[in-house]
Amino acid sequence: GQSLEQPSEVTAVEGAIVQINCTYQTSGFYGLSWYQQHDGGAPTFLSYNALDGLEETGRFSSFLSRSDSYGYLLLQELQMKDSASYFCAVRGAALIFGKGTTLSVSS
Amino acid sequence: EAGVAQSPRYKIIEKRQSVAFWCNPISGHATLYWYQQILGQGPKLLIQFQNNGVVDDSQLPKDRFSAERLKGVDSTLKIQPAKLEDSAVYLCASSSRPVLFADTGELFFGEGSRLTVL
């Protein structure tokens, strides 16, 4: 079967840096994606890692270690608008999502 | 470019009643997915279509859920009869190619249809 583990909640203050970890167990792994979802909104794509290493997109970076079945999303210079749920998702024949991490950013 | 459209946004029904949700994907997207998202959890794949054919419906409770995509464009998800545990947001997503063959596997989601079963 497939399983993904990520923390349920993370809190931080504006301007800080936060790392959201994701460990996974799956067969047929092709890559790890990250999605952001604001309350009542649609999940939106943030980043994708197929190979080991760090991918940087503006304030957000994502890392993957295939040998450790581990990845993380790094959010820098946090803003209030970053308060949302963040999901890691394993790409195989379909996209399988973790349960999500709720990030709360305070001033 | 118009996004994924879903309707209705909200629906409240009694248990044992039926309900249908509609999805219109991004123009030209051949692959369409229905996900179920229960409060506090991640989206769970129910069914995946490639054009008008079903690719994967292994997680669809077929005794009460059905879905179709007759002309390979818009899709309908039906629940009959509904149970209390079906209360969730039903998300439709589309992509230009199947997840397995796309560059990043990016899915484009609609805002969902929130179902409450009383």
Helix content of chain A: under 10%
Q: Given the structure, what is the number of helices of chain B?
A: 0
Rounded to the nearest angstrom, the distance between the terminal CA atoms of chain A is: 41 Å
The major beta sheet of chain B can be summarized as:
7 strands, mixed
State mean pLDDT of chain A (0 to 100 scale). 95
The Cα radius of gyration of chain A reads: 13 Å
Largest sheet of chain A: 6 strands, mixed
Shape of chain A: globular
Terminal Cα span of chain B: 37 Å
Give a count of the beta strands of chain A, DSSP E runs of length 2 or more.
11
**How would you spell out the order of helices and strands of chain B?**
EEEEEEEEEEE
What sort of overall outline of chain B do the alpha carbons produce when their principal axes are compared?
globular
SSE topology:
The complex is a heterodimer of chains A (107) and B (118).
Chain A lengths: L2 E3 L3 E5 L4 E8 L5 E7 L6 E6 L3 E5 L2 E6 L4 E6 L8 E8 L3 E3 L3 E6 L1
Parallel strand pairs in A: 2-11
Antiparallel strand pairs in A: 1-3, 3-8, 4-5, 4-9, 6-7, 7-8, 9-10, 9-11
Chain B lengths: L4 E3 L2 E4 L5 E6 L6 E7 L6 E7 L2 E4 L8 E4 L6 E5 L8 E8 L12 E2 L3 E5 L1
Overall description:
- The complex is a heterodimer of chains A (107) and B (118).
- Chain A has 107 residues and is mostly beta strands.
- Helix content of chain A is 0%, strand content 59%.
- Chain A is built from no helices and eleven strands.
- Chain A has strands at 3-5, 9-13, 18-25, 31-37, 44-49, 53-57, 60-65, 70-75, 84-91, 95-97, 101-106.
- In chain A, the strands form two sheets. In chain A, strands 2, 4, 5, 9, 10 and 11 form a six-stranded mixed beta sheet that branches. Chain A has a five-stranded antiparallel beta sheet with strand order 1-3-8-7-6, with no helix packed on it.
- In chain A, strand 9 (84-91) and strand 10 (95-97) form a beta hairpin.
- Chain A is globular, with a radius of gyration of 13 Å.
- The mean pLDDT of chain A is 95.
- By secondary structure, chain B is mostly beta strands.
- Chain B has strands at 5-7, 10-13, 19-24, 31-37, 44-50, 53-56, 65-68, 75-79, 88-95, 108-109, 113-117.
- In chain B, the strands form two sheets. In chain B, strands 2, 4, 5, 6, 9, 10 and 11 form a seven-stranded mixed beta sheet that branches.
- In chain B, 37% of the residues are buried.
- The mean pLDDT of chain B is 93.
- The chains are: A mainly beta (107), B mainly beta (118).
- Chains A and B meet through strand 5, strand 9 and strand 10 of A and strand 5 and strand 10 of B.
